[in-house]
Amino acid sequence: MFDPVREQRPSMSTTRDSNRQLEAELLGRIAAGEEAAFAELYDRFSPGLYSFVMKMVRDEKEAQDVLQEGFSHIWRRASTYDAARSSAFTWAVMIFRNKAIDRLRVRQRQQRTMDRAAEEFGHSVDGTEQTAEEVDLREECSRVRAALGEIPGEQKAAIELAFFGGLTHEQIAEKLDTPLGTVKARIRRGLLKLRDCLKEAV
Amino acid sequence: MIAEDKQDLAVEYAFGMMDAAAERAFEAELKVNEELRAFATELRESAAALAHDAPALVPPPELRERILAPVRGELAVAAAVAAATSPVKSPAPIEASNFGFLPWAIAAGLAITSAALWMELSASRSEALFLRSEASALRQHDALSQVKIAMLSAQNEAYAKAGAVVVWDGAKQRGVIKLSNFPRAANGKDYQLWLIDSKKSAPVSGGVVPVSADGVARVSFAPDQPVGKADKFAISVEKEGGAPTAAGPIILVGD
User: What is the ipTM, given to two decimal places?
Assistant: First the structure.
């Protein structure tokens, strides 16, 4: 039966497409040096990116620094964005992820230095684990979480180590004490499954 | 159908696991292989979607201004440069006289000079702001610089053979101290570690350092209050159990 209200409301995929187009246009305007577009992109992206970076670095101050570096990169390099290769959000996620990974690597080096010192002195220095505060889930988050729920646990674990931990196949294999080929297959199958689930959810 | 090894490369590409050379080679292949390109793009989008699998948080409001202010400053400088380099508009014709151009020439000269001075000032302010931000980012980036290792030296003959090393992580506000060749503390006395922050009026206690019968100590410590910058470390002899403020003789100091 025809439902005028439902017919008038844009579908989720239409909304997503128009958002993508708008965000790509914002990057074009930022490349032209428009401050208002930069502010608008910040308002659209910063909550999602901050949450994501916090999950990676687990430190508020570091997450804020990563956001500052990442947005500064976007301001200076917006002209390099290619809409044919990825959505603006994906482009931004990869920039912020790389910056967060840089921080994690520095931290790992620092931890190794402390471990060496502590080992020499015969005492270990415990790390503190910070927990990110959970608040409301947004629609996109629910969609991704639902899709992740469809992925077998071992595949999901390997994917999360790759994405949030910034680890290579080899490092994941070592961490999970699993053969490299198995890890590659888990990540490949998991990511393909995620892709399919996200497509179905549209 | 895309071969499994190519799929694995697309996965590595999606997760940014490739080194620069491998990424360049893969991107060259993507340019000529449409099917692989579409596949790699889908995987990259799917990987980026994982960002949504994080507990929703809101960045602090002041961060917005911290990020937008440098951009505003940069644009102001660019505008000033554009204004100063654009041709000076000729004034409306005035009645001809031998020196009729002089006031306009002076005004134009003053305008250009003022614009140039303002530009220079704005540019240096903006540059200073940018450099400060970069320096701060670099300092934070190189977290190793936050780990300080200090060798402490004896301040009196009785401790000439004693050794003390402090490893201090300012970011985590924790450290480790190792002592060697230390005489046992006298009855009713203890050795106590102090962190000296020049911005504080008094040394901050790092706690008591118990020395074993063979004259060594290995202790993890955390100061009893936050320390901004530990310029120096010192060990003093205090009453048993430690003192809230340094009162006894300082026997070793180092930075």
Answer: 0.77
